[in-house]
């Protein structure tokens, strides 16, 4: 019995590690991030202790050495000062957008909701937004989103996506975290990265990209930057990094959040992106402003993620549009009563989608359906939306009346 015990433990550990690696590599395998170092749990150092803990973890190889990445980690235990009470926590990985950083407040927001959270800086900066020794080098403090360099590991998007995967590896390794209950959300450029990672890292149980989408080469504020590249570099960037190459492989549910008039991510490219995902929900809002706090302030994010990680009430969901006998309907799937339903529409024909004026009108809810007798004349784009008793808003798919 003594010999059995002696050999049983290492075999058990070997088997556990084997299956962890198998689950980790299920979709990463075959992508440009399929390197030995992407599957490791990165080493890290604690550099500050507060309501959120400041850490520096080891990223991918960059310019011949392991890159340093600053992040904040927060949990109910870091807030209370007693981490011994952190057990079996769901976890969320938080990805900032352009000009952003590792937002301490964002990590704390999720910790207050009972989550372990990690928010990393993808720009090579520290807690004071100063360059971190051994971190990514931003030329002139400008993020080189579209740079294609001879060395793959010097390209910002390659490093950024890798940093997020490694942050996921790290938080899943913490004893306080249930590694089978993790989610991802990102704002703007973080939304772009989140869309891609939905199809690359299938260990996440739910993903919420806010604003960001794919098909940047089709129509977006970023198209002008892509067009500055040579034809070869542009094709390389699109193949390696545009979310359209990955998001269609997403196996987890994805909630897409955006505003009708977002100045960076336009509705046609947005629709192309969400149409690639089988298990999706939408929350498209008239007048949603674009910045980090407005982005993560959408309560739908938490309720969507929490429904999949903690089994709480899910968001409502609108079904496909049905037209029959002059009526237009969409089935409502919900466990929370619906407060109001709307027709959201624009009559503008300008080709600049972000500049179109949007209106909405109350419509009928009948027999668990949104119901409308007919559309106003002159509509060019429209969609249904509903708001439940919690004040949470979801949308149906965009309906296009004219070619744009």
UniProtKB/TrEMBL annotation:
SUPFAM superfamilies registered for this protein in UniProt: alpha/beta-Hydrolases (SSF53474)
Occurrences of domain Acetyl xylan esterase (ranges): 43-218
Any Pfam family hit: AXE1
Molecular functions (GO terms): serine-type endopeptidase activity
InterPro entries according to UniProt: AB_hydrolase_fold, AXE1_dom, FrsA_esterase, Pept_S9_AS, PhoPQ-act_pathogen-rel_PqaA
Gene3D superfamilies the record matches: alpha/beta hydrolase (3.40.50.1820)
GO biological process: proteolysis
Entry keyword set: Hydrolase
Superkingdom of origin: Bacteria
Protein name according to UniProt: Acetyl xylan esterase domain-containing protein
Gene source species: Pedobacter hiemivivus
């Amino acid at each position: 019995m003594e010999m059995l015990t002696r050999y049983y433990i290492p075999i058990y550990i070997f088997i556990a590690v084997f299956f962890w690696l198998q689950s980790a590599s299920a979709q990463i395998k075959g992508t440009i991030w399929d390197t030995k170092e992407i599957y490791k749990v990165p080493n890290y150092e604690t550099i500050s202790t507060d309501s959120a803990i400041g850490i520096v973890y080891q990223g991918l190889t960059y310019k011949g050495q392991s890159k340093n990445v600053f992040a904040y980690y927060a949990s109910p235990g870091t807030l209370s000062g007693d981490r011994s009470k952190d057990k079996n926590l769901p976890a969320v990985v938080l990805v900032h957008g352009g000009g952003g950083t590792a937002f301490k407040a964002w990590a704390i927001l999720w910790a207050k909701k009972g989550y372990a959270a990690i928010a990393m800086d993808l720009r090579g900066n520290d807690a004071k937004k100063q360059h971190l020794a051994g971190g990514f080098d931003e030329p002139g403090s400008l993020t080189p989103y579209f740079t294609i360099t001879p060395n793959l590991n010097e390209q910002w998007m390659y490093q950024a996506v890798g940093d997020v995967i490694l942050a996921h590896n790290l938080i899943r390794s913490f004893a306080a975290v249930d590694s089978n209950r993790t989610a991802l959300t990102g704002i703007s450029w973080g939304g772009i990265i989140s869309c891609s990672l939905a199809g690359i890292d299938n260990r996440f149980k739910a993903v919420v990209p806010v604003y960001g989408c794919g098909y940047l080469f089709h129509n977006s504020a970023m198209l002008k930057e892509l067009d500055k590249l040579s034809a070869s570099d542009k094709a390389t960037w699109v193949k390696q990094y545009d979310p359209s190459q990955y998001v269609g492989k997403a196996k987890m549910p994805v909630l897409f959040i955006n505003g009708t008039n977002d100045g960076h991510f336009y509705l046609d490219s947005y629709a192309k992106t969400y149409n690639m995902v089988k298990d999706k929900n939408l929350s498209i809002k008239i007048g949603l402003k674009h910045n980090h706090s407005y982005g993560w302030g959408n309560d739908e994010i938490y309720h969507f993620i929490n429904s999949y990680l903690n089994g709480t009430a899910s968001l409502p969901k609108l079904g496909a549009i049905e037209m029959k006998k002059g009526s237009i309907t969409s089935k409502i799937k919900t466990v929370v009563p619906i407060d109001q339903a709307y027709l959201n529409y624009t009559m503008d024909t300008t080709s600049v989608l972000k500049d179109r004026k949007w209106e909405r009108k109350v419509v009928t809810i009948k027999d668990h359906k949104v119901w409308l007798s007919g559309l106003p004349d002159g509509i060019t784009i429209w969609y249904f939306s509903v708001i439940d008793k919690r004040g949470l808003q979801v949308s149906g798919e965009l309906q296009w009346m004219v070619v744009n």
